[in-house]
Amino acid sequence: MEAEKMVNDTGRRRIIGLRLTGLEYAELEKSWKNSTVKKLSEFVRRVIFGRKITVYSRNKSLDELVAELVVLKRELHAIGVNFNQAVRRLNMTDHSPQMQAWVERFGRDRDAYLALFEEVKSKINSVSEQWLQ
Question: Could you tell me which residues come within 8 angstroms of residue 127 by beta carbon, excluding any fewer than 6 positions away?
Fold first, then answer.
């Protein structure tokens, strides 16, 4: 009868006191925070009983790529703003010399935009090749 009660009992009633040094606790906490387990007690149970623990991992090269893409996005945005300003000014001017100067500037901005776009495209292709391997 007592054995059946122990098997069917799912409540946790036993407490284990465990003393750790500051370094040990910091290492435990770091491992716990890098996992998907929400509670420290559940993490410790999984470690003790050898159960599966899913751990987050970061890809440093991907982090660097994201940082580069953020910079490129800002540059592309600035060029887009310049395009809008150029188009507005082209629509407002009727003078031929001013029009010619803006067309030349528009061509330079377009070339810069296309060069940055190709750079972004090549970065994305290199990341996709890394992930496919």
Answer: 62, 65
Task: Note the Cα 113 to chain centre separation in Å.
Answer: 25
Q: What is the DSSP string of 22-37?
A: HHHHHHHHHHHHTBS-
pLDDT, tens only, 55-103: 877 666 776 777 777 787 788 778 778 877 877 777 676 667 777 777 7
55 beta partners:
35
User: Residue 59 and residue 55: Cα distance in Å, rounded?
Assistant: 13
Which alpha helices (H) appear in 1-133, and where do they start and end?
A: 2-8, 22-33, 40-48, 60-92, 96-132
What angle separates helix 60-92 from helix 96-132, to the nearest 10 degrees?
160
Domain extent listing, the chain = 2-48, 60-132
Provide the β-strand partners of residue 35.
Answer: 55
